[in-house]
Amino acid sequence: MASYVILSRVSPQALEDPKEFRQLAEKVSAEIKAECPGVIWKESYGTLGRFDIVDIVESDDPKQMARAIMILRTSGHETTETLMATPWKGFLAGL
Q1: What CATH number is attached to the domain comprising 66?
Q2: Domains of the chain: total
Q3: Measured distance CA(48)–CA(53) in Å, rounded
Q4: Would you say 71 and 31 are in contact if contact means Cβ atoms under 8 Å apart?
Q5: pLDDT, tens digit (0-9, with 9 covering 90-100), for 15-45
Q6: Among 33, 51, 72, 79, which one has the highest count of C-beta atoms within 10 angstroms of its own C-beta?
Q7: What CA–CA distance (Å, rounded) separates 77 from 37?
């Protein structure tokens, strides 16, 4: 299964109050689970710096990955950068 790192920034205009963020996160998560069953969320991190959120996901279906990213961008009001990730040992073995 392919691994991906999704780096996200939430639009400042997305929420009037930071307390609304939990509701938005739950809504987006439910939408992705319903529409992209082939995308498995492994971990999510809130970060301080250039990105607000780092998600680690897995999927063997690039179309479902693309759909999940579009849900984050539209429903989650996020800009994203997505990186395909290879476990280090596998990366070295492929060199």
Answers
A1: 3.30.70.1060
A2: 1
A3: 9
A4: yes
A5: 788 888 889 999 999 999 999 999 999 999 9
A6: 72
A7: 21
